[in-house]
Amino acid sequence: QVELVESGGGSVQSGGSLRLSCVASGATYCMAWFRQAPGKEREFVSSINTEDVKYYEDSVRGRFTISKDNAKNTLFLQMNSLKPEETAIYYCATTRGPTYPCPQMEHNYEYWGQGTQVTVSS
């Protein structure tokens, strides 16, 4: 089993920045960030694999940066120029084994954190 714990969420004004962290307690392969707004479906945001190949959902590309610290088994998401519609609970997730390319559908991820709230005000 892999445990994931997200942190770094908070409230910012439109255009502000936040840096999310996700600490993993076990082995990780593809790692990804998803987000879910109230009453909406969970959606893919970004992923990174063991070779540091990254993918971004179109709406965040150029504003968000995914990275990881392998020594600390920690995933990060730097979010810049945040928009109100990006208010959501942000979740990190990991696959059970190596996958290429990293999947973008939530059912392909086996382990999930509890999420961290991001609120972007107009």
How would you explain this protein's 3D organization?
By secondary structure, the chain is an all-beta fold. The chain is 0% helix and 47% strand. The strands form 2 sheets. Strands 2, 4, 5, 6, 9, 10 and 11 form a 7-stranded mixed beta sheet that branches. Strands 1-3-8-7 form a 4-stranded antiparallel beta sheet, with no helix packed on it. The N and C termini lie far apart (40 Å).
Summed up:
This protein has no helices and eleven strands. With 122 residues, it is mainly beta. Strand 4 (31-36) and strand 5 form a beta hairpin.
From the N-terminal CA to the C-terminal CA, the straight-line distance is 40 Å
Q: Which structural class best describes the helix and strand composition?
A: mainly beta
Mean pLDDT: 95
What does the radius of gyration come to?
13 Å
Number of helices: 0
How much β-strand is present in the residues?
over 45%
The ordered H/E elements are EEEEEEEEEEE
Secondary structure tally: strands: 11
Choose one word for the global shape: globular
Major sheet summary line: 7 strands, mixed
Pick out the low-confidence regions. Answer: none
Helix content: under 10%
Please name the defining characteristics of this protein.
122 residues, mainly beta, seven-stranded mixed β-sheet, 11 strands, 0% helix
